[in-house]
Amino acid sequence: MNWKSLFQLSKNMTTDEARAYIKDKPSDSYQLLDVRQPREYETEHLPGAILIPVKELMSRINELDPAKPTLVYCAIGGRSKAAAQMLQGCNFSEVYNISGGIKAWNGFKAKGEESMGMEFFTSGEYKDAFTMAYTMEEGLQQLYLAFAEKCDNPAEKDLLLQLASFENKHKARLIADFQAAESDIPKVDPQSTIMEGGFSREAILNHFQQHLYDQQDILFLAMMLETQAHDLYSRVARKSADEKSRKLFLHLAEEEKMHLGFLANELDRLLSARDKQS
Q: Do the bridges between strand 70-73 and strand 95-98 make them parallel or antiparallel, or are there none, so unpaired?
């Protein structure tokens, strides 16, 4: 360890700067490091974050790539500042402390422990990875269609159908990618109720069906689901030993980031229109 670097000031990023950085960079071009405790991570964390509590950082340093830019956060910035200095001492080339931590983060956050949803991706084979990813996309599409069927308001119904059409595009892209790498498309269970992020379609439908029929509620639900999906695909990509599977999940994580950008713009447009009307 380069002990002199422990006395150097680490570079800081505001949460706005970090969010812009994450939005613009491919998921595998940087590392987002959460140095809090597992219980804190389970309550809420930034999607795609790697959890290594600060007390374990030196013993697990080989789990990180020193050549990649590393963004570090904790609750408010104290532990992450110490962690950033440790990484600098281990010759990490580019380290940023997210000042204000997750408490200052103005954006959607993922929930759940590190293993959440991982049980659906156990074989490690590319064919199985494709099948489960396609099943999850299909599950989310069917959720939006089920909500749309129960919806009487034309504006809300159109939004739900538009969201369903996005999942159709995701499925088509998955099929194209699979056919480019393999041959015959494997069969997908049409009765599966698992959807993006590892959630149960029926559980979400039952929980939200009484109070979802407002465009803002629909967008909030969609952003929550896409955030969880981005987080899950990022975690699965890191654990994938098969290179084709790893690239598949990284691609899906990028798709979710782009979809989240669309949803955020739609929400801004909706809230701006409401402000003008009030």
A: parallel
Q: How many domains does the chain have?
A: 2
Q: Give the CA distances from residue 74 to residues 52, 68, 190, 208, in Å, rounded to whole numbers and listed in that order.
A: 11, 19, 41, 31
Statement to judge: residues 79 and 194 lie in one domain: no
31 lies in some domain: yes
Structure tokens at 247: 């690239």
Catalytic amino acids? 74
Q: Quick check: is 111 in a domain?
A: no
Range of the domain at 35: 3-104
| pLDDT score for 118 | 87
- Residue range 2-27, pLDDT digits in tens: 545 544 557 899 999 999 999 899 99
Residues 164, 157: Cα–Cα separation, whole Å: 11
Rounded to an integer, what distance in angstroms lies between the CA atom of residue 242 and that of residue 239? 9
Q: What is the pLDDT of residue 49?
A: 97
The CA distance from 9 to 171, in Å, is: 46
Residues of the chain with pLDDT under 70: 1-9, 182-193, 195-197, 201, 207-213, 278
